[in-house]
Specification:
CATH topology of the largest domain: Hypothetical protein af1432
Oligomer: single chain
Strand content: 5-15%
CATH class of the largest domain: Mainly Alpha
Order of helices and strands: EEEHEHHHHHHHHHHHHEEEEE
Number of strands: 9
CATH superfamily of the largest domain: Hypothetical protein af1432
CATH architecture of the largest domain: Orthogonal Bundle
Bound molecules: fe (ii) ion
Radius of gyration: 25 Å
Number of helices: 13
Strand order of the largest sheet: 8-7-6-5-9
Length: about 400
């Protein structure tokens, strides 16, 4: 963005777009340049112009001292470094082998969580024993291959969002626990907490819950009540564990104390509560809904990294990146040859070079005969250039898994 700034506000690192002076009048070779030294600053001031124009895309901005591009580049580097060093657990079966079973689990999970949430809206008690077989089958699918089930959970329908998001948070939490080598009993308790983390929303008026636009201050305050309401519902559920209650009670707390409802800080928030906060944000931002494309997973991972120390604990965020990987299965990516490809399998030891299936050529705007690439093979000369939004190309990536 081109901005007009007072010369007295000019700082090192800003990029001059226009000195507001005819070039012959000043000692600089070019009208456009980066202010790199105190001498540059002095010379600009000596020109006597009151204002100059800066390009905030190419240099620093005011009042924010760090330009967006620098931040993004640093986060990208961090993510790439993590991709090189983090290792994932070896799956027992391939995504292709697990996907059929995973589709069945998602279907069952959506029906069950929908029913539990509806019962709660009607004032009925949560029947915890109903969740146990479901959590067990989710956990078993995750242990066989986490990418199959997780890849299916990104797509959500607007009217089914609350319970589909609940299933996704429960599943991602189970996967996160597994990556941290947490014991099987605790994993399942965390899974139950994830499935029920937003149960308090059933006590919030529907018009607020389904409001498409921005909530007013009063409506937002009411919405925030879902955390306290959820805690109350679960505390009155026979047989529920403290792990599950903590997840519902703490999933909107922030590491630096800026969250709600209690403003808990650091270790005052249980480990499971901290994990739930990360998972909740990741799923909400990456979800593909009708009229809402969902952010690219790597963009969201960068956002999580950016919030380390404020909203989240850094080692936990790193572990979460290990959980989901850098290029999640089911994502659509563009390759160097302009082909669009679906990520079909991640390598547990090489998160930056997954297996992909090329299906469409973006230059020709037409489908091509599917072609498999293993980007980790030295003989493979293709490279991922960027993520693509599937709806933009009318592509359904999940049909290719
Ligand atoms: Fe929530």
């Amino acid at each position: 963005m081109i901005k007009k700034v007072d010369v007295s506000d000019l700082r090192l690192g800003m990029y001059i777009h226009d000195l507001n002076r005819d070039w012959v009048e000043h000692p600089f070779l070019r009208n456009r340049f980066l202010v790199q030294s105190p001498r540059d600053l002095e010379r600009v001031r000596e020109l006597g112009a009151r204002y100059v124009y800066i390009d905030t895309e190419l240099g620093q901005d005011l009042p924010n001292p760090t330009p967006f591009r620098t931040v993004d580049r640093t986060l990208e580097d961090t993510l790439q470094d993590l991709g090189r060093t983090l290792k994932r657990t070896t799956p027992l079966v391939s995504v292709q082998e697990e996907i059929r079973q995973a589709k069945h689990v998602v279907k069952e999970a959506n029906i069950m969580v929908h029913d539990i949430l509806q019962d709660c809206r009607l004032g009925k008690q949560v029947e915890l024993e109903k969740t146990q077989p479901l959590v067990t089958s989710i956990t078993e699918s995750i242990f066989r291959n986490p990418d199959a089930l997780v890849s299916l959970l990104r797509i959500k329908q607007a009217d089914k969002y609350t319970y589909q998001h609940s299933v996704a948070v429960g599943t991602l939490l189970i996967s996160f626990c597994r990556a941290l080598d947490i014991g099987r009993t605790e994993i399942e308790l965390a899974g139950i907490g994830g499935l029920l983390h937003d149960i308090g929303k059933m006590k919030i008026p529907r018009y607020i819950l389904n409001k498409p636009g921005k909530l007013s201050e009063r409506e937002f305050a009411l919405m925030q009540q879902h955390v306290a309401e959820g805690r109350l519902v679960l505390e009155n559920t026979p047989g529920i564990s403290p792990i599950s209650i903590n997840i519902a009670a703490e999933h909107h707390e922030h590491y630096d104390g800026s969250g709600y409802p209690l403003g808990l800080k650091g270790d005052e928030i249980s480990r499971f509560g901290q994990m739930a906060a990360i998972v909740d944000v990741y799923d909400a931002l990456t979800s593909q809904r009708v009229y809402h494309a969902g952010a690219e997973p790597t963009a969201v991972l960068k956002q999580l990294l950016e919030c380390c120390g404020q909203h989240f604990d850094m080692p936990l965020v790193h572990s979460f990146i290990r959980t989901v990987g850098i290029y999640p299965v089911g994502a659509l990516v563009k390759l160097e040859n302009d082909d669009l490809a679906v990520v079909v399998e991640q390598h547990h030891e090489d998160l930056l070079h997954p297996k992909v299936k090329a299906i469409f050529n973006s230059r020709l705007r037409s489908f091509i005969r599917p072609r498999d690439y293993d980007l980790s093979k030295p003989s493979c000369h293709q490279r991922i250039v960027c993520f693509e939004i599937p709806s933009r190309w009318r592509i359904e990536p999940y049909a290719y898994l």
